[in-house]
Amino acid sequence: MFEFLFKYPAGVFSKGTFVLLGTWPRWALGLSIAAAVLAIGAILWKRRSRVASSVRGLRLAAIWGLQSALLAILLLLLWEPAISVTALRPQQNIIAVVVDDSRSMALNDVGRTREEMATHLLNSGLLRNLSSRFQVRLYRLDAGVQRIADTAQLKPDQTSTQIGKGLRQLADEAATLPIGAVVLMTDGADNSGGIDLDTVAELRRRRLPVNTVGIGREQLANDVELDGLDLPVKALTGSRLQAQVALRQNGFSGKHAKLLLTADGNILASRDVALNDAPEQVETLEFNAGKAGVKNVRARLEPLPGESNTLNNELTQALSVDDAKRRILYVEGEPRWDYKFLRRAAEDDPALQIVSMLRTTQNKIYRQGISNPNELADGFPSKPEELFNYQGLILGSVESAYFTTAQQQMIKDFVDRRGGGLLFLGGRWALADGGYNIPPFRELLPVTLPNRKNTFQRIFVAAELTDAGKKSLITRIEEDPEKSVQHWEVLPYLANYQDPGTPKPGAVVLARVDAGGTRLPLLVTENYGRGRTAVFATGGSWRWRMQQPVGDTSEETFWRQLLRYLVSATPSRVVASTPNARLEDDGRIQLRAEVRDTQYFPASDADVRANVIDPDGVAETVPLRPEPLAQGIYSAEWSAEKPGSYIAEITAKRGTQQLGSDVLTFRRENGVAENFHREQNRELLQKLAEETGGQYYKPSDVGRLPQQISYSEAGITAHETKDLWDMPAVFLAILLLKGTEWLLRRKWAVV
Amino acid sequence: MLLRGVLVAMLPAFLLLSALWAAGPIPDWRQFPNDASMVGRRTSRKEQAPQKFREYPAWEYNNFPIPADAGVPGEWVFARFMYRAVPTWSGYRLINWTIDYPRSDRHLSAAVRRLTRIQARSVEEPVAAEDGDDIYNWPWLYAVEVGHWDLTDLEAAKLRDFLERGGFFMCDDFHGTVEWQTFEASMKKVFPNRPIVDLPNDEAIFHTVYDLDDRYQVPGEQFVYSHRTYEKDGYQARWRGIYDDKGRVMVAICHNMDLGDSWEHADNPEYPEQYSALGFRIGIDYLVYAMTH
Lengths: 751, 293
Hints:
- The complex is a heterodimer of chains A (751) and B (293).
- Chain A is of the alpha/beta class and 751 residues long.
- In chain A, strand 33 and strand 34 (633-639) form a beta hairpin.
- Chain A binds chain B through residues 333-337, 339-341, 343-344, 347, 358-362, 364, 366, 368, 428, 458, 460, 462, 490, 492-493, 539, 542-543, 545-550, 552, and chain B through 40-45, 48-49, 73-76, 115-119, 133, 136-137, 139, 161, 164-167, 208-209, 246, 287-288, 290-293.
């Protein structure tokens, strides 16, 4: 229709430039139109008293407008309007026709396979029509592009599709070949994480339009797909973890399916999932990290009857479980029952070691959990290196004045720079009563302390969870979240409480107490610098142990989880990471390490190496280089060639001094990516066409492609000027304007 | 000298008569609840509430002054176990649990305040197994004269449950073989399969605040008259205990000594200071151990 009305394809107008071929100057056109409009207006104004009363006012203005528009069009035609466009020269340019040859093209969702659909389109006229105007080169696309002689060489059995990589190859070829345009026939199921910006920029720089032909249905019938698996890459032994599984479905809304989480054959967690219509449904499964070692955690949704594709029902990610004990320094100012029960809870946790110093009398310190007789022999550490050997710090009922100014600053650095966890407990010498309303504690605390004393009260109070607490793993005292909430409702009263003030913006209140009708925060957490701080404003949780039956582990579980929260994310001097721990078909990986010295300042002069062990146990050493703009950050690009799990131990040393090491796990899987996202990714194809100056076509529209593709600035081109005066749309407009005026006059009874 | 001997010989009879006069009618223990089947169950917050401070008629003291700050709560409270005693020849069960009460309790509480950073309540808390879940509110529990106890099924079950939840029990002031056998008979009702062992010198319980490698027998007030540190055939002080599954002392047994008297008579000019000094140190070491292990 567009071409009928406007004589040329839409591409001509979008790519061309509007020009006036008439020799008269442009300003004269504007002046003429203005003069004509004024003249018509003046005539109508002069005759207004003689026309019928029914066409006065706005009606007269409408007549003026219609006549002026008509006259403006006629004047414009006198100046010979035209469009100037760059077009490919016939038979001098190459059109690269690229056909996706990956396994997803074998899917039969359009009455035939997608590959057959593409072949049919090419052989039923598209290739012939293109060949009549251009030289045509046929390519297959999988992990790159390869030239083929004819469509018979297409076989949809390749395990990956990397559109970006293929287009990059064509852009490079365009440097030496007159490639005028690319025709890409694909379902858009790209496995490389999308098309990188560099490739798009290169295509734009070469002005090479990519015209995309979308093959396949945009929504698959009767399919459930796991869209993502998100869980920590590292954990402490026995940690309670959350795995978030994203899934989406079509055709199974309201149906139930079983979601399983397994590791090396053992079931970690399972849940019955009710599928819904949300674009992405996220389910959370909780599981125990178990013993130390590298585990392949697999999320799997059991296939539903009639499901079209069951190969996209599972995802795997490597998890490294660490058995190194996290050491927590606990400074307590007075013997009290919570000290005992906190220690007992941690003693039964293989991942935790509480090193405590307790002021039993005014001048005596009782040490427990020390590694050697010298540890804490002189009291609280006086050097950062000593304090930074711990991953967590607990300040109990001990006055702030017990610490020197230098030690107070060191505690701040412990959290801010070292990344440790700091827990403030309630007590008669804690928080506001302990004089913690001073810098740097004031900044460290997740609450703003009240500006008064006597905030500690030995009055029994009930603890209750907030909404955030109901979702938090710290406060999960039963395996089942609902049972955990119910258990909190019947927990014995705390023996005492302390008013910790008001939570700071950004702090999370997980639990509170009902102190005579006033709700006061009980457990508050917040991230601070590289570390985290928390307040547990009581010293009376021992009643949770003494007043509950033997075998009830809620009190121990609570403490262990709070202590694990405190230290599980505390970094070591070397922190290894990678942006993508799950590689699919593409083995390229960036190994990254953040390196700090003994005082946890960034170390920019370290020798950093990764010892990567592949799935066959073969080791390779990869040096990491410092990144120029980030202090203490080192990185290296590496390629994991084989499928399976990899372990990379990254070590850093400065001269002969070992700074530390960290272990990273990642996993490569081949041939899996093609089973996911198998519906046509129209959004990607439209965006690609739009960004490069091409167009997106449905299979039914490809007949227009050979002509529309001509207007490109790539390859060998020529400027064409196309007259616009004889467009049917112009004549139609004239007729419409005059016809409308006539009809209006008829209506107003002035004809 | 002769007169003094006669008076000492009459002392027990005098004490017994005065106690009977002070205590009024001896309770009939058969009327006390003795159903152990409900011990250890989950209870409501109301059932878990602690008893309010109260004083009971005692063997030795019935008008001991109550300190002005008796109502101020503390982190630690001297909890005294109100157990059932063995019947006498006439079938009565005496109130042995009140021996030294409340004077020794308050003296030790004052010493804990003076010598440590523990916030101690100035007055004791008598604790009975029959008082619902009250016992679990006092994680440190003391019993005197356990050579005369005769625990009911309920008391034994409650004491076992208290200890398994994390409580600490200290007993004292019983002497010689016969009283040991009486003590052991009831203790076996609490823990039939846990052995009672001698605590070695390097056990942490002797080193929390004071290093007590050199301990000696602490006699009762009878030393003032008899100048003997032992009673009956309890010639040698025995420091014994029962461990839990994690190797922590949960029952501390002070046999052939009278720490209760050493606390009670700390302000008695006739009672030697060295015994009170050691008595307090032992009490504090045990208490701090209970609060740290």
